[in-house]
Amino acid sequence: MADVQSGENLLFLTDEQLRQGIEAMFFAYRGFTADPDLILTELAYGRAHHRAIHFIARRPGTTVSNLLSILGVTKQSLNRVLRTLIDDGLVKSEKGTADKRERHLTLTEAGEALEQRLSDAQRARMRSAYRAAGPTAVAGFRQVLEAMMDPELRRKYKAMRETDT
Amino acid sequence: MADVQSGENLLFLTDEQLRQGIEAMFFAYRGFTADPDLILTELAYGRAHHRAIHFIARRPGTTVSNLLSILGVTKQSLNRVLRTLIDDGLVKSEKGTADKRERHLTLTEAGEALEQRLSDAQRARMRSAYRAAGPTAVAGFRQVLEAMMDPELRRKYKAMRETDT
DNA sequence: TTGGAATGTCAACAAGGCTGACGTATCTTG
DNA sequence: CAAGATACGTCAGCCTTGTTGACATTCCAA
What we know:
3-stranded antiparallel sheet; disordered N terminus; DNA-binding
């Protein structure tokens, strides 16, 4: 097999390049969570709370089972987090009108405020990284990340963009 | 302020774009760890073991304190993981010759074998993502990730590339 | 009317973080 | 050479967040 046509010997696909990509993901993810983590610790919450808050903010009125499918944890695990958020008055849980078994989750004012704080911190870092790298790099960044997702999660990720203009 | 020259109103820096970047990181990281996780579960290990193995493989003979600074955990936490790996015969710990206080960590043959297995699985996904996105996208991906790291970790990340040709 | 879906909850357990404290070599420096 | 600093290991206890398993309730839909 000739080396050019096969596409196997391209420089950016060497094991060493891939390994560097792996390490980049590892170190970058640390930075990605660092800023919200500071705020969360201060409030005695963890990343699990952040995730729940994020996706409730993103899809107000979402149901528990939808959240479960996005977060990929057990309902017991989610419920523990959700319970503290509800008890602390950050999340509101309301019985569905169409299907009364469902609970629709929304953020209270206090919840919105915290979401904003967490989101601001995280976006500030993203913004500075995006700005440093430039629009072309950002497009590539998004492409690679999307290609890295499990198909099922990619579907959910894309669906999340559709309905928000 | 004119909107073009300021650089603040660029499409790729809108809050919505940043938010999508955040979600992309979240979902992609799940994919990133999914394949090794399967192997690890089967062996009753966790991600913490994987991280230790990875960086020992990357820097054979590295010391405990160097590993600590890369992983960003406490020595108690690292030690628990390291202990099981040593007891299971995957990692070898040897007193330093120059400085006898230090322990130099290397993978045994069995350790190398596991590292290879984990690394193969993780690289396979990276490779397929890289191939799907193309070299330009990959360059952008790397740039954004690097810009997202904490300065201290970026330094370590870069240092990790220098001495391996 | 009956099976299954959506939810909540209790209990128990494990991984893997953390802090604090202490001990022991070993190196370095005044 | 003595004293302090460094590198490492370890004991003990705590927290978050994940897991499994079991059980109850409510409600939709065939």
